Structure formats: C-alpha cells, structure tokens
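Risk mitigation, structural track. In case the binding assays with zinc ion fail to produce interpretable data, a predicted complex structure has been prepared as a fallback.
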Amino acid sequence: MKIGINCGHTVSGIPGCGAVGIIDESEETRNVGLKLEKILADAGHTVYDCTNDYANSTSANLSAIVRMANAQPLDLFVSIHFNSGGGKGTEVFTYGGTKHAEAVAVCDKLHALGFANRGVKYGSSLYVIRHTDAKAMLVEVCFVDSASDVDLYHKLGAETVAAAIAEAITGQTVINTESEELTVTQYEELKSEIDGLKPMIYDYMDDNMPEWAKPTVQKLMDKHILVGDDKGRLGLTMDMLRIFVANDRAKLYD
Ligand SMILES: [Zn+2]
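Fallback model:
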C-alpha cells in the first residue's frame, strides 16, 4: 500500500501545536506516528511522511500537510492525534463518518489494548479529512488530559500503540521488536546459537582429546597437578590445553 502518515500538529510551542495535558500532544503524535511509519515501511509498504513541524499558523500547518498528502496518489492517509477536553478513549474521524474497515479496525485494536472505544465519527469538517484526495482518517489515540488514558498509554508505550494501528490499517501482524518475550521457535534458535558458541570442554583422556595434548595431560594427571572434579571431569578448554602443552615444552612440569 501507499500510505501517507501525518504526525499531527507542529512541534510543541509553535503556532499549530497540539493540546497539552498530562502529556504533550505534539510530542506524542511524533512518538506514535514516526514509529508507525517505520513499522509500515519495514512491512514493505511505501510510506510518505506528511508531517509539518514548523508553521506560522494552524491553517499554514494544515495546508502544508494536505499538500504533502496530495503530492502523490495514496491508498490511505492517516493523521495521528491525541484528544483533549475531558473524555476517555479512542476515536477515529473519517469523511462523512464512513465506517471503512481500517477506521473500525483502529478503534477495535486500540480498544483491545484497553482504551475505551468511542467509535468512528463524522470528520468532514476536519481540514485534513476534507482536503486530502485519498481515503483518509484522523486517529485520536486517547486523551492527553485523562489520567487513566495517560497511565495506560505509558504502560503500553508508543511502539505498541503504533503496532496496533499498523495492524489495523494493513491487516498484517506486527512483530513488536521491543518486546522481550520470545516465541518458542525464537527461543530454540537462540539456544542452539548459544550452544554453538560454547567452547568444547575436554573432560577425559578419550578420543575427543587432541592427540598432541594427550602426553601433557597424562603427565599432569600422573603428577596429580590435574585431578578433575569430584566425578573426575577435567573441564579443560582448548586454550587450557594449548597453555599446558606450551608450558610442558618449556619443561615447567619436569
Ligand atoms: Zn490534535
């Protein structure tokens, strides 16, 4: 898909910036939006960043966003925002309030993460919805001035929120690269990789023991310099064998 992503508003403190509550909308639209862009690009989609950081006014910001969005044909335009003004949860605005699949899925996915589902709403009066050529939606992730929304948002992290939106608009499953949970397959692969890195241990005077090391090891055992553990395991690495043999050649054990 060709997807235009807008991190809503200008940066904080500039004309056109977002609402400030417990968190700052301008900062969080970028935290979520830029991660969303990366996830979509990694999943093979063509992503156009339609973010305008600096403008002289709100209307200049909005027209700059629309210019970037309409500069190429898009399958979907998504503007990321955070709400304010007393309320809780997620809502998505579309042209005419059309409940297209991506918009409904964003509400459902964010609801599944714990946000209240305020649904898909009439957004034709919103500049970026009205003026973009592509199918468009404006996502209000949650409320910057709701303590419970902000707590949940912080608990989840911007990456998880971005991944949920990406899954909603593409239908593809996103592997959260920041997650510390490994799948069983990932665990098995990692385990065999680590096992491969483990040094070979020579415990006994058997066929595994390199021929060149045997006389020295035998000598050290005879002299009770090497006695092994309580089960008689020598626990020698290749490096240790080399050092013993070199010392033996230097006649340190004679
Ligand atoms: Zn906003």
